[in-house]
Write a structure and sequence with these properties.
The protein has about 375 residues and is α+β, with helices and mostly antiparallel strands. The chain starts with a strand and ends with a strand. It has 10 helices and 12 strands. The longest helix is centred in the C-terminal third of the chain and has 26 residues. α1 crosses α2, α2 packs across α3 and α9 crosses α10.
């Protein structure tokens, strides 16, 4: 029997660099997916074929069938050989949950998600692999999306003491448009949102990879230092005025104020959304305001992202922003449906590939021959 699992990528609408500060995020899962085809074998070996990392651009397919191949003996302890040894960490996290892995696996993994571009390619790879293995083992956790997200977070972040949050794993596992509250990072609260203002989204690839770990550390540490010096539990407890009056160094003040402003935008989005008074124009402007805080406060935009957003808005986009950690990667815009294709054409004329995207469901699996 073969397990065919898939999980979506995501847009972060509001909340980049807020989840690991015990705050909130708004995400939208999109129809770019990571796939895993898994069958069991009886020799205790896991043989993983995964789409070659050189195929990393939006809309680029694997028509040449280029794969990297990894093999592990699951009967022996899996010792990490580098800081992103994610296949091993997935198996270790599953074993730590008490799941009996006495068999082996043949695993083939493919993806539509641009690699190294802020589209959570590593998180989705981990989430879909964990889901597929749990299904193949018929483990009781296989349908628990919250637990799958937690296992993905452990496999990617806590196993290697990396500085990321849990947004990507949650967004991929649950799908749809979601509001996540990370006040308790171990037990986040999830609420589904019914939909968004009338319009559509286009994703663009800047063709520049980013250093996710460096950007995360650069964006995270100054705010954490400010929180420590001011003696509060979270940056969300402070106002802009308190930061400006605190006497903190500018290198701490600027990113802290950006975080506070973006948290205020997120809360205003929820207020307008819940009241039914969120227009497409207001939504687009809020996305771009959020982006400007990330750009000016954290310094994580790029010339390519700015060129794409300027071109798109000149062609009729209502707003847009970088996606994910920033420092390269992808960005997206929001516009009325009638403008989407002309915006794609305008930006692609500058050399950046684009794709109209839609909301998608979360991680899933089915059994086949």
């Amino acid at each position: 029997m073969t397990i065919m699992a898939s999980t979506p990528s995501r847009l972060c609408l509001f909340g980049e660099h807020l989840d690991y500060h015990s705050l909130e995020v708004i995400t939208m899962a999109i129809d770019l997916s990571f796939y895993a085809r898994i069958s069991k074998r009886n020799d205790g070996h896991a043989i993983i074929k995964i789409k070659d990392e050189s195929i990393d651009t939006l809309n680029q397919d694997n028509s040449g069938n280029k794969y990297e191949i990894y093999e592990y003996d699951l009967r022996n302890p899996l010792i990490y050989e580098n800081t992103r040894d994610y296949f091993k960490s997935c198996f270790n996290v599953i074993k730590n949950r008490g799941c009996d892995i006495s068999c082996g696996f043949d695993i083939t993994m493919d993806s539509e998600i641009p690699i190294g571009k802020g589209m959570c390619s590593s998180s989705t790879m981990i989430v879909v692999l964990i889901k597929g293995i749990l299904e193949a083992l018929d483990c009781k956790l296989k349908d628990d999306r919250m637990e799958i997200a937690q296992m993905g977070y452990e496999a990617e972040v806590t196993e290697f003491n990396e500085p990321g949050g849990k947004m990507d794993h949650m967004a991929s596992a649950f799908g749809g448009v979601c509001h996540f509250d990370f006040a308790d990072i171990r037990n986040p609260v999830m609420k589904r949102l019914d939909g968004l203002p009338q319009g559509g989204f286009v994703l663009f690839d800047t063709l520049r990879r980013k250093d996710t770990i460096r950007v995360l550390a650069t964006a995270r540490k100054p705010v954490e230092e400010a929180v420590r010096k001011l003696g509060v539990k979270s940056i969300g407890e402070l106002s802009e005025e308190e930061i400006f009056d605190s006497g903190l160094d500018e290198s701490l003040t600027r990113p802290s104020v950006a975080a506070i402003r973006n948290y205020k935008i997120l809360r205003e989005f929820l207020r307008l959304y819940n009241s039914g008074n969120l227009s497409p124009e207001k939504f687009g402007q809020m996305l771009y305001d959020h982006h400007k805080n990330l750009r000016d406060g954290l310094g994580i935009s790029t010339n390519e992202i700015e060129e794409i957003l300027d071109t798109a808005m000149s062609a009729g986009a209502l707003g847009g922003k970088l996606n994910g950690t920033g420092g390269g990667g992808c960005c997206y815009i929001f516009a009325t449906e009638d403008k989407l294709q002309s915006i794609v054409s305008a930006v692609e004329s500058k050399g950046y590939p684009g794709r109209i995207i839609h909301t998608a469901d979360g991680v899933s699996a089915k059994r086949g021959d």
